Amino acid sequence: MSAGYNAIRGYEMLKNEIKVINKKGLHYIIKDGNRLLKFKPWLMDVFSFLYDFIMESSIFPKKFGGDINRHYEILSKELKRIHEKRVLELATGSGSAVNFLPNDNQYTGTDISAGLLRKAVGRFENAGFKNAVFFVTSADDLPFDDNHFNIILCILSLNFFNDIKKVFQEIKRVATPDAVFICSVPVPERNRLQSTIRGTLYSEEELGKICRGNGFKFESIPVDNGALLYFRAVRQ
């Protein structure tokens, strides 16, 4: 993945007023002259090298009461027919999408954690993705043009966003007509372990209302994996 190729793909889908700089495979947004847009430091920036281990050995079995391999199987089945699409992922993390997304798609990853995104860059390269770019940005203020992405992913992150309604407004804005939003997120009614799960948990009913209120047709995916709800929402 060359810097030149990143610049071409990264710049073409940006809103007109957005300026970015590419540093070691990551796109940073420039604000107020030459100042890079920065976000409040996140704990996993420091411990990004442990992120995958923590997810597999602690979060999935102890918090979600689920299985990470089952998680990847569910998403792989949902996305196996997705090819050569423009895919956006909110909160990419360390790049787990390589476990379930076909590598012939044009992938755009976003996260406020540069540390995790740097891990994702390497994983996507190793997985054979030729069309992958990464932006340090937040889900509630995306730098991308309107009506651009065919598929939008949000995996295990929706509960961490401070303003979920604004996030869905952004999802709708950047999605093409008939685009599909695919999400996995813990919900309180499936938390059989009664474990403490960080973030704000919304019920399936609440998530359905939020989707429909933003012009998406909501449909839960009928699978079971601990506290996790898997759903798709089609932009109307």
Describe this structure in words.
- There is one protein chain.
- The chain has 236 residues and is of the alpha/beta class.
- It has one domain: Rossmann fold (3-Layer(aba) Sandwich).
- Helix content is 31%, strand content 26%.
- It contains seven helices and ten strands.
- Strands 1, 2, 3, 4, 5, 6, 7, 8, 9 and 10 form a ten-stranded mixed sheet that branches.
- Strand 2 (26-31) and strand 3 form a beta hairpin.
- The longest helix is centred in the N-terminal third of the chain and has 14 residues, at 51-64.
- The model is unreliable at 1-8 (pLDDT under 50).
DSSP summary, beta strand count: 10
CATH class division? Alpha Beta
Structural class determined from secondary elements: alpha/beta
Tell me the span between the first and last alpha carbons: 35 Å
